[in-house]
Amino acid sequence: MYTRRAFLKGSSLAMFGIGAAPSWLARAAYAANSAGQFRKVLVTIFQRGAADGLNVVVPFAEPRYYELRPTVRIPEPSSAEPGESAIDLNGFFGLHPSLAPLKPIYDAKALAIVHATGSPDPTRSHFDAQDYMEAGTPGLKSTRDGWLNRALAADPAGTSALRAVALGPSLPRTLRGKNPAVAVNNIGDFQVKDRKSSEMFETMYNHSVDTVLSGAGKETFEAVKILKGVQSASYTPSFADIGGWDTHFNEMGARPSQGPLANQLTELGQGLAAFYKDMGDRMADVAVVTMSEFGRTAKENGTRGTDHGHANVMFVMGGGINGGIRGQWPGLAQEQLYEARDLAITTDFRDVLSELVTNHLGNPQISAVFPGYESDANKYRGVVAA
Prior knowledge:
The chain has about 375 residues and is an alpha/beta fold. Helix content is about 25%, strand content about 15%.
């Protein structure tokens, strides 16, 4: 009988995405290795809707933060009752109290935090910003495939049907491309339930003169066979479906631990901590990275919320991660803000992803993964341990 832990350990997770407005779409990608050996794994979490990075990782030591946010703010550590203030990380930054499950992982040096990161493209459109980030080509609408699909090109495992699987109703933008990827809405439903029908369809696909159709059919049925042992396992994904990172109004309740953002972060923190625990020793080969299309305004608006901004924060978690605060903090003084309203970007999101693709996945072909991006190891933030 497969358990969640056994399934995750026995699979090679390539990509896991969360978050699609108005609700989260949980997506997991699994890669099968014919040799039965574990390979490096990359898990991505997309917080769609633009998470408020300034309240996710709070610059509590900068007085300007509290000036800009008289009501939508997280109190300094120990300045409020337990569970209602920032969790001190290094004397300057603190986690939102709803992310308390991540503090032990941070203390274990397995969680890196890169603040003031994001896309250099100035758009404030959710659709465009998400598309640019998933394509890996900010400002370029003509890119047809996704950066994660392109990152698979150098994978020596070949074209297994389970190299990349999206657990959701459709293939996400970042996994679309020429390399094989399969979308599965529910692992238990990924099957042709009638055995005779299954054999008949498989024969039809195998004998098709259309090479594209034949190839797609072969990959699908290969994936069905691999997942067959999981169908009776009552497998449940580690992450739940929730929605709403776009906090234009009432971002916070009467307390910091209440309201839409706190609810989102509770799910995220508990989900990441559960995944970290479930993977156990396997986490040595796994890296998890979070991203959001852009951040929120540094100043709160008139409806106790925040509007579309620029820079945000990324988390990188894993056994091979060089934990701690990474990146360069730009400051919140008026002259330091982007367009006099947003946190400025000091780290291109591709700097973080390129370091993971190169130093974690072992794919040095960064110019192919991120076309138009000038790869330079000097821009890396040291999130992957040497």
